[in-house]
Amino acid sequence: MATFHKLKIKDIYKEIDDCSVVTLDVPSELTEDFAFRQGQHLTLKADIDGEDVRRSYSLCSSPLENQWKVAVKLIPGGKFSSFVNNDLKTGDTLEIMAPSGAFGVETSETPKTYIAFAAGSGITPVLSMIKTHLAKEPNAKFKLFYLNRTVKSIIFKEEIEQLRNQHFGRLEIFYFLTKEHRDIELLNGRFTSEKLQEIFTKLLDVSQVDEAFLCGPEAMIFLIRDELIAAGMPEDHVHYELFVSGLSEEDIKRTERLSQQNVEGVEVTIVDGGKEFHFTMTSDYDNILDAALAAGADLPFACKGGVCSTCKCQILEGSIEMKVNYALEADDVAQNFALSCQAVPTSESVKVDFDV
After folding, report:
1. Phi and psi dihedrals of 301, rounded to 5?
2. Total number of domains constituting the chain
3. Tell me: the pLDDT tens digits for 223-272?
4. What is the 8-class DSSP label of residue 98?
5. Structural domain of residue 44, as residue ranges?
């Protein structure tokens, strides 16, 4: 069962013109449920004009701060982001799910060197990581490569600069701008393969990096991931969370093929909250999540785009195929975990466990 908790807005302010930072008031009886690791996110729900609207936002606060903060960047035409930036105020109430997500790593007892590449609001989970790793690991070092349009559009610039001063010599920051020109040509424009090669030569020794965190648009993330791996970094040390801007050709072909999959009459068993829920799929829905919701199940979800992993489940019986998957690692898939919003049954019956 998707458990949402009604939490009051403790504070809300504009970090920049089109980005609001929301601090949630988590009561003492829920602090254990809302314990989180740097890099995780919250799923927020609100009734907007009679519609149940949900979105996932990364926590930008550190677990060490005993605060729950998210930054919501205004997206043109975005229902939830417009609501938060234009209507939400201190004292209002939102429905929130406990923190989830697998982005990031645990803190280390041994000295490590971390790097992060972020674009725009992709800084939010990275900021939580910077604050946590540098505070808990006195010998750790962190390098941030942060892409924005202009200086004025840099989210959390003042806080980032304070962290640089606080951890002097251990936090290095490189700002890249796409709409303003600076004297150092390397810092102008988006990341390209050529620019990354120059960064690896002048600013970053990839061989000395222990963990890399990437957060931003899909094309940027996959480019940087591939370049880091080509430069010798182990693939399982490159961690990313992305904003999907469009399906790849491979994803489009798979989605088209699975949309023709005959799901009429598939018997589905949902395990949630220790109880079983049974229903028969119809051709009105081609994925397990939508079909289950239509049948009356109360399941967790947020983006429905295969990105946030809020609807993660485990296939206990039968088989499925996912249209897209931007959230689960290969070892998750090997253990039969799936994103229910993308899971299309390929057997006559399936049993799916949401108690994971």
Report:
1. -160, 165
2. 3
3. 999 999 999 999 999 999 887 555 567 777 887 888 788 899 999 999 99
4. P
5. 5-96
> What is the rounded CA–CA span in Å between residue 166 and residue 68?
22
The answer to whether residue 122 is domain-embedded is yes
Answer with the one of 208, 243, 278 that is the final residue of a domain. 243
Distance, CA of 59 to CA of 22 (rounded, Å): 10
- 320 vs 328: CA distance, rounded Å: 15
- Dihedral-angle region of residue 15 (phi above 0 means left; psi in -120 to 50 means alpha; beta otherwise): alpha
Burial class (CB in 10 A: 0-12, 13-18, 19+), 79: middle
Considering the entire predicted model, what is its pTM? 0.83
Residue 105 lies in a domain: no
Q: Are residues 153 and 221 in the same domain?
A: yes
Same domain, 53 and 24: yes
Residue 139, burial from CB neighbour count under 10 angstroms (0-12, 13-18, 19+): exposed
Residues 238 and 257 occupy one common structural domain:
no
pLDDT digits (tens, 9 = 90+) for 137-181: 999 999 999 999 999 999 999 999 999 999 999 999 999 999 999
- Joined tokens for residue 180: 């303003």
Q: What is the C-alpha separation between 69 and 71, in angstroms, rounded?
A: 7
pLDDT tens for 169-219 read: 999 999 999 999 999 999 999 999 999 999 999 999 999 999 999 999 888
Q: What is the DSSP string of 150-179?
A: SGGG-TTHHHHHHHHHHTTTTEEEEEEESS
